[in-house]
């Protein structure tokens, strides 16, 4: 198919596993991860928090490895690969739409958060007031320009940002410990304990959408072994360090805010720089994946993805500037909750039904009913068990909290897909 061929990575485009690892490390070091770490630290002992984080990110690494090896084999991004399990039209009109809206929306929210924090910190340091909308637009454009350079832009940004962010956060930790704030860590017990499962669920939820779209980056890997190495080494150590740092600093300072972490260390300027870089390295991925998904939705190919990335980023930046993103954050959270079910049908189709062999992978025409049904059921299970419907009065009766919602959705989609495929036969071109 022309569009599939247009997205396929060529041999000369393949990257080292180290380059892909740095992209994942850059994505892990972000403001939301520090906040999630603070939430886990507030609810678990430090030992239990470490266990929850390790288990949670181990699950993420497994999912990323399967999705990434699939992408490495085919050379295709997630929105195109989904055509194997949901049919070409299902991937184009359903999955690409969900991924486009989700990535564009979160790009805008991150740009707005960065703009607001930048304006606030500049005013605190200098007394000079910068309108939040202007700050959001400027930083949105800067992040977008990096994303338009595609993978090369991500490599360049992360080589600079990751080491600097690591140094700044470790300095903040050491300063807080030496200042006496670390005394609260001795014999620390959370005031409002949470269960270990909830800690694992928070960890998984913080990166599960990234796992679903990991094929966008892992398709650049040279082989399956490099996919696994980059996924495990890029996520597990960095995730453990960042979330534990977030937890410890939140306990020491009494706040989840990264600017507070760094202000207590006496580093307002470096705190501002860390905040920008932490948002930048993550948000570039939102624009890049949103651009790929939009390109698939519009029937374009890889050559046009720079244009669609620019369009995605501009829309997200405009939404951030006009301040309407807070009104739709619940909707974006709903989309994020249903995305993981996509992994269930894709893993079932390629690895279980297709036995992980590239010769068994085909993009089906039209909508593939077993895949679409399994995806919808998996998404509903994830929403029901994750509390997504709790805030919607008319649907609150569907709220049935259980285990880890995203994993529930993945497993449900996987099982239903296999059952339907076995019952009706595997059709390559329905």
Describe the structure.
It comes from Pusillibacter faecalis. One of its GO terms (cellular component) is plasma membrane. InterPro entries: CodB, Pur-cyt_permease. 74% of the residues lie in helices and 0% in strands. Helix 4 packs parallel to helix 10 (196-205), helix 8 (132-148) packs across helix 15 (268-297) and helix 9 (150-178) runs parallel beside helix 13 (224-253). The protein has helices at residues 2-7, 17-28, 31-43, 46-74, 78-81, 83-86, 88-126, 132-148, 150-178, 196-205, 208-212, 215-218, 224-253, 258-263, 268-297, 305-322, 325-338, 341-353, 369-385, 405-424. It has a single domain (2-424), classed as Hydantoin permease (Orthogonal Bundle), CATH 1.10.4160.10. With 430 residues, the protein is mainly α. The chain is globular and about 65 Å long. It has 20 helices and no strands. The longest helix is centred in the first third of the chain and has 39 residues, at 88-126.
How widely separated are the two ends? 16 Å
The CATH topology corresponds to Hydantoin permease
How do the SSEs run, as a string of H and E?
A: HHHHHHHHHHHHHHHHHHHH
CATH homologous superfamily (4th level) name: Hydantoin permease
Low-confidence runs (pLDDT<50, min 5 residues)? none
GO molecular function, one term: cytosine transmembrane transporter activity
Main location: membrane
Family: Belongs to the purine-cytosine permease (2.A.39) family.
Membrane topology: Multi-pass membrane protein
